Structures are given as C-alpha cells and as structure tokens.
Amino acid sequence: MQDYELSVQHVLWRMERLHSKKEVVTKREQGFHRITNGELVRRVNRLAGALKRLGVKPGDRVATLAWNNYRHLELYYAVPCMGAVLHTLNLRLFPQHLEFIINDAEDKVLFVDQTLVPLLKPLVGKIPSIKTIVLMTDGAPAAADHGLGELLDYETLLAAESDDYPWPKLSERMAASMCYTSGTTGNPKGVVYSHRSQFLHTMGALGADSLAITEKDTVLPIVAMFHANSWGLPYACGMAGSKVLLPDRFMGDAKSIVDMAEQEDATILAGVPTIWIGTVAYLKESGKRLPKVHTVICGGSAIPRALMESMDALGLRMLHAWGMTETSPLGSVARPKADTKPEDELNARLTQGVAGAGVEIRICDSATGVELPWDGVAFGEIQVRGPWIARGYHNGYDPGKLTEDGWFRTGDVAKITPEGYIEIVDRTKDVIKSGGEWISSVELENAIMAHPKILEAAVIGMAHPKWDERPVAYAVPKPEFKGKVTQEEVIDFLRDKVAKWWLPDEVRFIDEVPKTSVGKFDKKVLRASAAPIKEGAAPAVRK
Ligand code: AMP
C-alpha cells in the first residue's frame, strides 16, 4: 500500500474538487453571509499566502479568538495546511487564563473578531510572543483605543495574495492544532492534535454508527469552534461535503438558532444540553417545529431524561455522545444496538453509548487501578486509548494522566454494561461520598430536573460531621414557578426515584446555575459560595 500521509490537506482537496458548490452560511446581525466551498478554498489559499508573508513557519502557533463564522473556518484550514498550528482560544475565559494560555502556547500571530477586541485590552503588554494581530471585521476597523498597536486587516491581507498557494508536503505526525482544556481545576492544559489524529477522528465521526454526517446533510454546529474542535464537525462536514451553517455569536439565542435551522433546511444540529433546554422552551412557546432535522447531536454533559423526552415529543431526535478535549473529542456515541427492545430504547439512548470505532475503553478502580468488570454495576474511572486520544499535555503538565500501560485517565466515573454501553456516574471530583457509599450527583440532578416545576439543577457534596459528605441540591425553578416551589415538594418527588439516603439534605433555589466557559454546570463556583448544611437539616433522610 502507498505510504500516504494523513492530513487536513485531504479535506481541503475534497471541498475544492468534489463539493465546491456547497455553501457555508454565517449568521450576521442582519441576514446571512453566504460563500461556496470553492470560494472559501480560494480564500484559504490566500490566507496561507498571507500567513507566510507574516513570517509564520511550520510548527508556529497561530491563535484565533473568534466565533463560529466563515473566517474562523478558513483559519481551520489555512493554518494546519500550510504547516502551522491552529490554536483556538476560548473567548469565555478570564483574562488571566487567556494570558496564561497564549504565553504557554507561545502564539505568534493572533486573529480576532472585531467584537472580541475588548477581551484583549487587559492583556496589553502581557503577551510578548504575539508579534501580529489580525482583525476580522465586516465593516470599518475598530476604533484604535484598544492599546494593542496596529492591527492588520484580514480582508486587506487576503486581497494581496493569489488563489494558488503551493501547499507543502506534510508529515502526518506534525501538529495541526491545539486546544486548552476548559480548566475547571487549576490552569488549563494544552492538548495538541496531529494531522493524523484529526484525519482519523474525522473518519471516525462520519461512520454510520457514529455521527453519520453525509453529503446530503446541512449541519448547524452550536458548539463553539474554540472548544474541542467544535466536536470535529468542521472537518467532518468538509470531508463529507455537507452544507454548513454557522451561528457566529448568536449561539445562545434559541430564536436565532431555530430561524437559521428553519430557513436553511438544517438536518443535523449539535450542541450541549443547555442549548436544547432553551430551544425546547422557545419551540413550545412559538409553536415552531423543525421537521427536516433528523438528528440533534448532544454531548458535553449528560442528557437529562426529561430533556430527551421533551425533544422527542417535538420531533427532535437526540443522539448522545461522550468525549472530552483530550479525546479530540469523540469517544462514544449512543445508538441503540440491533437487539434493543423497544421499551429499552430510551434508556439506551440516554447512556453515553458505546466506544466508537478507533477508541478502546476500560474502567478501573480509581484507587487501586484494577480493571473492573462490565456488569453494569461496578463503577470506576474511564480510561481510553486510540489514535485520537491524547497521551499528554503541551509542555508536559500532569504526566500522571497516562497510566503505566499507556491508557489516558479521563477522570470520568462510569459503569459499563455487558453490551458495552457506558453510563457515566460522575466526575471523580463530583461524586459524593456519604457514609462510605457513593452518590452520583449526575443521577440526582437528572431526577430533580424531571420535576415539572424545575428548569435546571446541580448537586454538590457538602462536608457533614457524621456522614463525611451529604448532597445539597441547587435548583432553578421554571420562570412561571419562581417562588412557587418548595424544598419538600422536590424531595417528595424524588422519594420513589432514588435511594432514601440519596435524598438531598437541602434544596436551595437559585436564579441560575453558574456555568463554565463552555456552558457546563460550574460546581466549583457553587461549592465556593455554598453555605454549610443547616443544623437539623435532612428531614428527607429521617422521614
Ligand atoms: P471538555 O474537555 O470541556 O469537552 O469536557 C469533557 C468532560 O465533559 C468529560 O470528561 C465529561 O466529564 C463531560 N462530558 C462530556 N460529554 C458527556 C456526556 N455525554 N455525558 C456526561 N458527561 C459528559
């Protein structure tokens, strides 16, 4: 067989030669921006020329601070295909984290959306590796009060280049891109993807038992392009030749999302559960439906049962996937197997699914490291290995994440059924230990979120003198039930759903669950501000 180097260049070739008429549509303030793949690839060539002219060499890191839009997509191709490394910056991070990440990656050039320029202001004078900042804007450049010095204009740079960049021959082991973990504990850590891992991950994502994206699809990723490769969707769509819809900075706005999906005939949507909680509310209230959508890919957090049921009722079929930045991110996908009985379908779809082709998985006791059986009962840390799983972090942080025999320790705790379905119980740091027994915060949250008056719930373990830790729930009532739901009501609702000793000691009502930079429940923030459990609380357990 030929010794063919796997690289992102192949995806670009397919977009140009096989799918040049397909469109990439980006939401704008007013209406949509449209570009064909053919035109986009020409601009990618120009962009590569501009990068070279700016002095970008193979292996140099090129950072992006951008929303989901066509210019960001151009960078997804131009940077790796010319041999440099695309580093997507998470625009929701605090300035200290951004500063740390840019310096840790030693980014050389930074591309920034006009609306995000203010995020760079606090970093002036603190990111010495950045030699050039390129501004991406549709209108007049930003006023020069940002203190960042001269910003180059993206469109002016492209205008000066030719449509025909001499793409270099790449080795598949070269770095293509990097992304930092979202840093819920300590500093974020950089994960570096190779051309080979991106290529194989893309092939894995396209599989019929995986995300099954095809040329006939129109895909709307509401997953940030700065987070975990946007779940690999940009390259998967390029490889398959699907039409792509990019919501730019309107990702949290259910109306914008539904309108775009409706007007552009989306067939596949993708996003974290929080996005769909908002979408369900909007669809119910507006009476709109999206009959052309056949799949709603959902991951990043477990899907609450109530959410999947509401989405089913609206004709939106969710496809549950699990993964993390370190797994590129696709690890497993929940498609019920052929022998699933109809009454077990929903349960199977609510699991984190089975490991995708290319990913090996096992569960191990967190303390002893001993491998555990797949009996649907024993639970331990998920460990994975495969060609798109990280073996370490940029600059060598946290070497203990790799076991001695080469498996990556995910920090997620799960059971695996004899059929291979993964059921995540918790993060190792979120699981609650009460009286020597484990309580899954995720299961409790899902049970609480099934209450008709509750919108969102997060459960944390709080120190307890007798039991070591006890669960405390933070619940957000639906707007119409604000002030009209009681702790007792919630606890009574849980009585026949979870073990008695799992019932939370307290249910505290809040307006919103704090979220991390990528939209997950931020239990660290809840823990930091949580008042201790009240003396004499836990009526639930004693009753
Ligand atoms: P990130 O690297 O920011 O994408 O976060 C990855 C983490 O999100 C995983 O380690 C899990 O803890 C969590 N996660 C991702 N997908 C799921 C899922 N389907 N169900 C439960 N947790 C998930």
In short:
By secondary structure, the chain is an alpha/beta fold. Helices cover 26% and strands 24% of the residues. The chain has two domains: 8-357 and 387-393, 3-Layer(aba) Sandwich (Rossmann fold), CATH 3.40.50.12780; 432-529, ANL, C-terminal domain (GMP Synthetase, Chain A, domain 3, 2-Layer Sandwich).
Keyword list:
single chain; 543 residues; alpha/beta; Rossmann fold; GMP Synthetase, Chain A, domain 3; 2 domains; nine-stranded mixed sheet; seven-stranded mixed sheet; 15 helices; 26% helix; 24% strand; globular; binds adenosine monophosphate
Commentary on this structure:
With 543 residues, this protein is α/β, with parallel strands linked by helices. It has two domains: 8-357 and 387-393, 3-Layer(aba) Sandwich (Rossmann fold); 432-529, GMP Synthetase, Chain A, domain 3 (2-Layer Sandwich). It has 15 helices and 25 strands. It has helices at residues 8-17, 37-53, 70-81, 95-105, 154-159, 195-206, 233-240, 254-263, 273-286, 305-313, 345-350, 441-449, 487-494, 523-529, 539-542; strands at 23-27, 32-36, 61-65, 85-88, 109-113, 132-136, 152-153, 175-180, 190-194, 218-221, 243-246, 268-271, 295-298, 318-323, 330-333, 354-355, 360-364, 379-385, 408-416, 422-427, 432-434, 437-439, 454-464, 468-477, 506-509. A nine-stranded mixed β-sheet has the order 2-1-11-10-12-13-14-15-16, sandwiched between helices. The longest helix is centred in the first third of the chain and has 17 residues, at 37-53. The chain is globular, with a radius of gyration of 24 Å. The N and C termini lie far apart (70 Å). The mean pLDDT is 93.
